[in-house]
Amino acid sequence: MNMHRRSLWLAAAAVFLFSGCAALPQQSAVKEVRVCSAGDCDKAGQKLSAAQMLSGFRQLMQANAGEKVTICDSDPNTRACESVGICQFVLGGILPGNGCADSIVFSEIAEGKQSDQLSVKADMPLTFIWTPVYCAATPATLTVRSADEISLEFEPRFCSWMVVGTMSATFNFAVDSVDPTQGRISGYWSHAVSGTGNGRGSGYAILQFPKAMPSGVNWFAGRAMVAQ
């Protein structure tokens, strides 16, 4: 086996290895959601209803509609921003490398198809080997099944890169902590691409919204928010 063929074989093997081992996070990984304020955290299920949680998330997203939400790599023990951006191994054609995302823009926040859902539009730019990848904005759904079961799911979106070609990308996020006073949501993410580029990854991250809940205001009190 010549060196070129050996390299291609190793790259192909790597993507299957990473795809198999990086299992998609399960909602069951979240034992309880915590709501924090000024560094103090409480169990959401003991203080808030699902309706109050949904109201709080809606107001957080409406206040930040059209703004860039930073994605920070983190871990569930510290819930600290260790670095900006989350990455996964991707085999783009014959090119192995990291596919990364460092921000999301949410817009068009509205009631979802079900009473426990919010419908949003999500724009999540990607890069592959530090080169921008075009990805279309896509519908997404935030679901609050209970105060301790909250998830964000993107519909598959079209992506294209000049060398790799076209791909379909998915993103899911299981919330395990929210701090409205800091504009932060933390949880377990999974991301996958398929097509002419293939790969998947998972981990723990913080979604850092630029606008936090103002002092003296309670977004989780169930009050309606005036559209901005």
What does it look like?
This protein has helices at 3-21, 44-47, 50-63, and strands at residues 34-37, 40-43, 68-74, 83-84, 86-92, 95-101, 103-111, 117-123, 126-128, 131-135, 138-146, 149-154, 157-161, 165-179, 184-195, 197-208. With 228 residues, it is an alpha+beta fold. The protein has one domain (3-22, 33-215). The protein has a 16-stranded mixed sheet that branches. The radius of gyration is 19 Å and the shape is globular.
Layout of helices and strands:
Layout: H1 3-21, E1 34-37, E2 40-43, H2 44-47, H3 50-63, E3 68-74, E4 83-84, E5 86-92, E6 95-101, E7 103-111, E8 117-123, E9 126-128, E10 131-135, E11 138-146, E12 149-154, E13 157-161, E14 165-179, E15 184-195, E16 197-208
Parallel strand pairs: 1-14
Antiparallel strand pairs: 1-2, 3-4, 3-7, 3-16, 5-6, 5-16, 6-9, 7-8, 8-11, 9-10, 10-13, 11-12, 12-14, 13-14, 14-15, 15-16
